[in-house]
DNA sequence: TCTTGACTAGTTATCTTATAACATATTCCT
DNA sequence: AGGAATATGTTATAAGATAACTAGTCAAGA
């Protein structure tokens, strides 16, 4: 459906995109013996509804409406589980979370955040990660985790105001 | 003194490092007609005291001790000024701020955050920025700003626990 | 000199984001 | 069934950030 996870900014069959990601996540969870419980699963579905990042409290509101707990830890714990197991990412720049578009694959995501429509795409970041490691090497720094995020305009939003 | 801004992890004459950065900032402010007022200057000095990122409230506490206002906007405004004019950077991953090691030069910083000692270095990021733009290009995304941050171990902290 | 406008600094109040700590329930294994 | 581990829920609070208003500063022009 979206093998590069880069279709966020292109028009696509989002219902299929969402269902595919969810099915994939379920398969990965099954394979790894992870418990994709109702709250966790629902949190992931909420993130998958759009190619945007959502704040923890946005997710919490949605969960609460549907009968889950309405206290912050409910959302934070579900999101933490999703992030920890690679089903979602945390977007530091936005204090927000987004569903992962490559669940199960080892990858370093590069987040492209549209400042006009709040759309979010996950570009392949292997090359960026490599050059980051090259920048860190001469200083003797050993990289463990990285956050690579860009803010700008997605294709659809470039027409409007330029 | 530290032409690459990468000495944070190396032993160096920090008093000179700090004074140099401050003098540089003053010169740039003078040249651009910016007002490096007492609060702003003091906030910068506080950031320059160590190669670590400080939270806005840490800076605020220090400012308040010295007779400046003790309400959050006092610190946030001073820090916002410093960031806006390139005297400091915001480290999203830490919800914190750090003095810029290349004031006045156009540059894309890559932040290297040591998870053991909280040290922070600013590596040159031109190559990383270029490959980020290359990753964004195929999606038609126009990059305006970017945050590139890595967490790991600095040279001094790699000996201890490996 | 006076005054006007831009900017700076301070305050109160509030909002948003995140976590600690503890109680209860569920699930898994033996 | 018993017990350990895991998951969910709650209360309370910590930590980070901003809106909106007031008042002081300073420089440029009438």
Characterise this structure.
Chains A, B: Zn(2+) binds at residues 114, 117, 154, 157. Chains A, B: This is Fur family zinc uptake transcriptional regulator. Chains A, B: Its cofactor is Zn(2+). Chains A, B: InterPro entries: FUR (IPR002481), Fur_C (IPR043135), WH-like_DNA-bd_sf (IPR036388), WH_DNA-bd_sf (IPR036390). Chains A, B: Keywords: DNA-binding, Metal-binding, Repressor, Transcription, Transcription regulation, Zinc. With 162 residues, chain A is α+β, with helices and mostly antiparallel strands. Chain A has a single domain (7-155), classed as Arc Repressor Mutant, subunit A (Orthogonal Bundle), CATH 1.10.10. Chain A is built from 6 helices and 5 strands. Chain A has helices spanning 14-32, 38-48, 56-65, 72-84, 126-136, 155-158; strands at residues 88-91, 96-99, 109-114, 120-124, 142-153. In chain A, the strands form 2 sheets. A 3-stranded mixed beta sheet of chain A has the order 4-3-5. In chain A, a hairpin with a 5-residue loop joins strand 3 and strand 4. In chain A, helix 2 (38-48) packs across helix 4 (72-84). The longest helix of chain A has 19 residues, at 14-32. Chain A is globular and about 50 Å long. The interface between A and B is large, with 39 and 39 residues. The structure holds a DNA duplex (30 and 30 nucleotides).
């Amino acid at each position: 459906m979206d093998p590069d996870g880069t279709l966020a900014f292109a028009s696509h069959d989002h219902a299929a995109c969402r269902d595919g990601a969810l099915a994939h996540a379920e398969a990965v969870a099954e394979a790894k013996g992870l418990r994709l419980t109702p709250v966790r699963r629902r949190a992931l579905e909420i993130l998958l509804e759009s190619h945007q990042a959502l704040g923890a409290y946005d997710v919490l509101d949605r969960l609460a409406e549907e009968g889950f707990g309405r206290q912050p830890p409910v959302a934070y714990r579900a999101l933490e589980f999703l992030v920890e197991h690679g089903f979602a990412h945390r977007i530091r720049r936005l204090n927000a979370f987004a569903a992962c578009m490559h669940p199960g694959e080892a990858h370093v995501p590069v987040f492209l955040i549209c400042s006009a429509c709040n759309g979010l795409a996950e570009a392949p970041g292997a090359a960026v990660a490599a050059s980051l490691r090259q920048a860190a090497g001469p200083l003797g720094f050993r990289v463990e985790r990285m956050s690579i995020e860009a803010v700008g305009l997605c294709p659809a939003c470039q027409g409007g105001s330029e």
